[in-house]
Amino acid sequence: MLEISDLTKTYATGDTALSDVTLAVPQGQIMGLIGPSGAGKSTLIRCINRLVEPTSGRIRLGDVDLAIIGHRELRRQRRRIGMIFQEYSLVERLTVMENVLSGRLGYVPFWRSFTRRFPPEDIQRAYQLLDRVGLIEQADKRADALSGGQRQRVGIARALAQQPELLLVDEPTASLDPRTSRQIMRLITEICTEQHLPAIINIHDVPLAQQFMQRIVGLHGGRVVFDDVPAKLNESTLTTIYGEEDWNPNREEDAPAGAGSAQAADASIEAAAR
């Protein structure tokens, strides 16, 4: 279980990215982080694994306070936290298999990582993960030859190769088309459910968050302003999170020119089909 208490991050400029954030993520829960740009979503995720150093507060993963441990212990504790990045963060010149195996670097001696000689059990698990994410046939292909969706799948497999206790996901669909975005979100949530793996997913697409998340936390100005199930998101709560806006998706004045006739044509086609 992850427990965050009074987490604050203030930069040297005096800007406060997070202010007294307190929340807990129980085992197996998939939590979505939403909010406007600059709300603190990425900062929160990166404070958890100390890619960004928190100013104050507690970050407990099990019985370890990640906020106060030294760098040597932090390297060991990071094995427990899988990270999936928006920009994939793959080594482009390496193969898909080599990128997945890089998730085991924290577990093998330096000479093995330097020579890329991993234990047979690690290689077997990497093949199993590639099969699970649908890339088994791409194992020997270079990462720079993959599509965006395929690269994100490699990133998922690499994070899972750590056998983490917590998964952090930073805008996994920001560079993907709508269909691929849903496929990636479905894959992440299915795997988390299968492995009873807790996850925090920073996501900018609210309908996607509503579709796939079990719980949604909304940040605004570095503070938690919403924490509930997706069904509780409405115009009022979205305004609290993002600011004043008309959240009705059916406003005629917002529709592109010609949309009305296109909708009428669609309705005629559907009627004919019936």
From TrEMBL:
Residues 244-274 are annotated as: Disordered. The keyword Iron does not apply. Residues 2-246 form the ABC transporter domain. GO terms for molecular function: ATP binding. Pfam families: ABC_tran. It is found in: Cell inner membrane. SMART domains: AAA. Gene3D superfamilies: P-loop containing nucleotide triphosphate hydrolases (3.40.50.300). The keyword Zinc does not apply. It comes from the Bacteria. It is a peripheral membrane protein. Residues 256-274 have a biased composition (Low complexity). Keywords: ATP-binding, Cell membrane, Membrane, Nucleotide-binding, Translocase, Transport. PANTHER family: AMINO ACID IMPORT ATP-BINDING PROTEIN, PHOSPHONATES IMPORT ATP-BINDING PROTEIN PHNC. This is Phosphonate ABC transporter ATP-binding protein.
